[in-house]
Design a protein that fits this description.
alpha/beta, 6-stranded mixed sheet, 13 helices, 4-stranded mixed sheet, 2-enoyl-CoA Hydratase, Chain A, domain 1, globular, binds coenzyme A
């Protein structure tokens, strides 16, 4: 049941996300800096379009999610996502939830590896896309908070689950109940992000990590990122079995990559897997 949008509305919605592709890295930006990149229904719809468009592009190997201006994202848009949809009734609320949760879920299982580059404020609902990204690097100056309790709701939209996944119980509970923010450095100590760096060094570090990923076999990257997410809720035996099947399934898409890797190490002695990736440019079958 889509509503008809005017050209101006469609353009405004498209402008909520900015995309640049450079050297196989897709830089995707929350682009509502004047609203601290809070997630409106329009932004959520546009993110899904952007993710769709980029997912299988041959010129994209890694996706970086970052924010324009002072914020990474100040969470859900309290006016457009909560107040205005609630005023329209339950169907509108459910639709807005589907749109938000939908692109986060797409990102969690994205074909390409993903990196959150947290340049500034990161609150509440923004923990959904933060967790959806495989890796996360933050500015030391960034501020993270489950601010929901400060305006009278529980940390929903997956945010409570995210902190239980990434933080220990006491920290998760303190974070949720006090609504106190932590800076990027503490976020790294707590495991909410991989590393914190001064803001002016953030992009260079993320670019360097992205370039490391670009050297790896893309089929193996997708299999590995899914495995790390899936095994978290499996018993050891189930995980062992899943990993056998997952590798066999990966072989269906790329049966030559690991053979080439073994060949370059054992026969050619041209690289050492303990020290870096094999040269995947020497084969034709890597792409999916
Ligand atoms: N929803 C809707 N609007 C938001 C918003 C949000 N989550 N976060 C910021 N904005 C809007 C403000 O209403 C303001 O709009 P206006 O210029 O039309 O008045 C604009 O963005 C700038 O915000 P402001 O508060 O003036 O910026 P700041 O830099 O001083 O503070 C924050 C930044 C992030 C600390 C503050 O905006 C904030 O607390 N936002 C809410 C965070 C939150 O609780 N998110 C969880 C939602 S689940």
């Amino acid at each position: 049941m889509g509503e008809v949008m005017s050209t101006e509305q469609a353009q405004a919605e498209a402008d909520t996300v900015a995309v640049t592709v450079r050297e196989s890295i897709a830089w995707v930006k929350f682009n509502r800096p004047e609203k601290r990149n809070s997630m409106s229904p329009g932004l959520n719809r546009q993110m899904m379009r952007v993710l769709d468009e980029l997912e299988y592009r041959a010129d994209v190997g890694v996706l970086v999610l970052t924010g324009e201006g002072l914020a990474w994202s100040a969470g859900m848009d309290l006016k457009e996502y909560f107040r205005e949809t609630e005023a329209q009734g339950l169907a509108a609320v459910r639709r807005a939830q589907r749109e938000a949760y939908g692109w986060w879920r797409r990102l969690r299982w994205y074909q390409k590896p993903t990196i959150a580059m947290v340049n500034g404020w990161c609150f509440g609902g923004a923990y959904g896309p933060l967790f959806a990204c495989d890796l996360a690097f933050a500015a030391e100056e960034a501020q993270f908070g489950l601010s929901e309790i400060n305006w009278g709701i529980l940390p929903g939209g997956g945010a409570s689950k995210v902190v239980r996944e990434l933080l220990n119980f006491r920290r998760a509970m303190y974070h949720a109940l006090t609504g106190e923010s932590i800076d990027g450095r503490t976020a790294a100590q707590w495991g909410l992000v991989n590393e914190a760096l001064p803001l002016e060094k953030l992009e260079a570090r993320v670019t360097s990590v992205a370039k490391t990923l670009l050297k790896k076999n893309p089929v193996a990257l997708k299999a590995a990122k899914d495995a790390i997410r899936r095994v978290g809720e499996m018993t050891y035996d189930n995980a062992e079995d899943y990993l056998v099947r997952a590798q066999e399934a990966a072989n269906f898409f790329d049966n030559e990559g690991r053979k080439e890797g073994i060949h370059q190490f054992i026969d050619e002695k041209s690289f050492k897997p303990g020290l870096g990736a094999y040269d995947k440019s020497r084969r034709q079958t890597d792409q999916v």
